[in-house]
Specification:
It comes from Microthlaspi erraticum. This is F-box domain-containing protein. The protein is of the alpha/beta class. The chain is built from six helices and 16 strands. The strands form three sheets. A ten-stranded parallel sheet has the order 1-2-3-5-7-9-11-13-15-16, with helices on one face. It has a three-stranded parallel sheet with strand order 4-6-8. A three-stranded parallel sheet has the order 10-12-14. It is globular, with a radius of gyration of 24 Å. The termini are far apart. The relative contact order is 0.06.
Amino acid sequence: MEQGGQSLRNEDRISELPEALLVQILSSLPTKVVVATSVLSKRWRSLWKTMPSLEFSYNATNDLERFSNNVCRCLLSHQAPVLQSLDLSIDSDNNENSMDCDIGILLGVAFGLHLRELKLHVSSRKLFRFPTSLYNCGTLDTLKLSHDVVIDVPFPVGLKSLRTLHLKGVRYKDDESVVNLLSGCSHLENLDLILYARSGVKTFTIDVPSLQRLIIRSTGEVLYVIKAPSLKYLEVGWSINFDSILIGYTLELEEAYLSISSKNYDYTLGSLTSVKRLCLSQFGPVRFACN
């Protein structure tokens, strides 16, 4: 009985599970841990190469070149027909051009795997310029960029599959870069923006006929021009003056949440006539001019 119990305790039952279930279990673990499972047995040796989502994080205490090589090796070993998502977080005090090259190469390899979703967070003394060659990815469905990333788009892009775009705390080369970026997202439905002071843009033009959901949070002095006839949800907050927001007619708008920074202002509600739910919040009296 004792011998049988010992045998039961040593039995590797998890390896007998279907591969699809094992991949689902591994998907809940950090990529670094998933790769480490390759030493468990022959069955696990290549299992990590089929993971649909990968997540990598770098901080200044690690060696950037070694990190870049390891991530590149993982991406080149990937065997799934499509890489569903890549989450890449870089926290560095590196001030050298090599960082741009390393990140650019990694993103290029990932895009070659028919990447669907990219989350890129860069926190560095040196700004990372998002490669212009990657603005024409036909498979990208979701793009989330944050912090020390520069949007420099000298020509219209071709992100025809993009439906969700988050730009949080990034920098812009100029107003034209915003126009060129959004004009190439012909199927964009969700746009989430955070703009701080010194964002590099004076007029942020959102001319996207397909846009349905828009969130803007800003602390800088920026003029927002919104042309989104299909918009259904609008949220505006932080220290935005409403005389700096020009909204075209949004006949399909259902919900609007507006947080107002100025104590007194005139605001025409003509462009919000279709809204079914309107929430206003501010710390002072509101004066409307309804025409």
